[in-house]
Amino acid sequence: MGTLLDDAFSIDPLLSDEERDWAAKARTFATERILPVIEQDFEDKHFRREFVGELGALGLLGMHLKDEGCAGAGAVSYGLACLELEAADSGWRTFVSVQGSLAMSAISKFGSDEQKREWLPPMARGERIGCFALTEPGGGSDPAAMLTFAHRDGDDWVIRGSKRWIGLASIADVAVVWAATDDGVRGFLVPTSTPGFTATPIEGKLSMRASIQCDVVLDDVRVPSDALLPGARGLSGPFSCLNEARYGIVWGAMGAARSCLEAALGRATSREVFGKPIGANQLVQQKLANMFVEYEKGVLLALHLGRLKERGALTPTQISVGKLNSVREALAIASEARSILGGDGITNEFPVMRHLANLESVRTYEGTDEIHTLVLGRALTGLAAFA
Fold first, then answer.
1. Domain 130-227 sits in which CATH superfamily?
2. Of 66, 75, 183, 204, which sees the most CB atoms within 10 A?
3. Which parts pass through the membrane (predicted)?
């Protein structure tokens, strides 16, 4: 697939022509559009809104959905696109994930025919942006304790509450807002121009700096009855969307890992110390070999989960295995790459510290390491240890 690692490891023989085409399309965009500007964008905390329409034109937004205007690509094709985008920067895979796997998936899974027609085609084209408002300031790992509440008032719904770490909210056209009601947790499509809806970008981030995450306040936001997502009732609704996003992370984190491994390989063969390339030293080769093994295992696991997903056989527990493994190993690979790069590894001459910082966010959202560990513990023992 065109990287320094291909001589040692390539999954191309395991892919279809269509899957390779999607990967190449995403890689070309990442290489030609994102990489030339990402270091400065990260430094400047700048999100390039103009890229959104370009991603839509390539078919990458909601690409796995079968709805009108969406590409209808397979799970492996979507995963490969996530890998290639995150090899450039986690923020851009996150954008595709929030737009497609969260906001668009919620509308596709649970929306009415009218809601799908109104929102999905322009979102797929990148003409409209969506966000997914679930997490609250009091604790992201316990959505069952959400305080945001929606009550009936005549034919309308009135929503009051607050959300935190909501990607894209300040530039979104519509928010998928999850709120408790007298009938359990429900989802609502809230145009962000609605009075009482306020999104404020979170400042002081040392991670995901080329991306947007917000605090959201819903101050008696009034929406009509047809804003309700009719097919979603209870937490199974938002959880099913989160699983779509977690699946993308299984692939995406391996993209960040690949970028760091490539940087380490390049440095190991080009920098000379004590009269020879540092890659000629046994300890450096051991680091490279260990990094490569974990990268290869992570990609093969992602491919396995993708094939399961395409057969309709992928379980939430298996997604937890993938998310936990991919992010944990990507962080370890990035850390080892930094050590091989020496002091220069902390500069933006290389992408490694940026990936390290971003991966700390990826590690936290869509379920922390601890939550996924407990999911696996429950599956193994039959005993829940969440409380």
1. Butyryl-CoA Dehydrogenase, subunit A, domain 2 (2.40.110.10)
2. 75
3. none
Fold exhibited by the domain 12-124: Butyryl-Coa Dehydrogenase, subunit A; domain 1 (1.10.540)
104 and 65 Cβ atoms separated by less than 8 Å = yes
Q: CA torsion sign, 74 to 78 to 83 to 84? A: positive
Residue type, 43: E
Mean pLDDT of the chain: 96
Residue 230 and residue 110 in contact, taking contact as beta carbons nearer than 8 Å? yes
Domain extents in the chain: 12-124, 130-227, 236-381
Same fold, 12-124 and 236-381: no
Pairing between strand 174-181 and 130-133?
A: parallel
Residues near 157 by Cβ (< 8 Å), separated by ≥ 6?
150, 151, 188, 222, 223, 224, 225, 227, 228
**Spatial distance between the Cα atoms of 89 and 46, rounded to a whole number of angstroms:** 13
Each residue's pLDDT tens digit, 158-200: 999 999 999 999 999 999 999 999 999 999 999 999 999 999 9
In our burial notation (b when 16+ CB lie closer than 10 A, e otherwise), range 202-229 reads eeeeebbbbbbbbbbebeebebeeebbb
Buried b (16+ CB within 10 A) or exposed e, 279-289: beeeebeebbe
Cα–chain center distance at 83: 10
CATH of 236-381 given 3.10.450.50, 1.20.140.10, 3.40.50.970, 3.40.800.20 = 1.20.140.10
pTM of the model: 0.95
Other CB atoms within 10 A of residue 106 CB: 27
Residue 70 amino acid letter? C
Neighbours of 2 (CB within 10 A): 12
Rounded CA-CA distance 258/301 in Å is 15
Q: Name the phi and psi angles at 281, rounded to 5.
A: -85, 140
Tokens of 17: 């022509």
Q: For the chain, where are the alpha helices, taking DSSP H only? A: 17-29, 38-44, 50-57, 75-88, 90-96, 105-110, 113-124, 236-270, 282-310, 316-341, 352-364, 369-381
pLDDT in tens, 305-340: 999 999 999 999 999 999 999 999 999 999 999 999
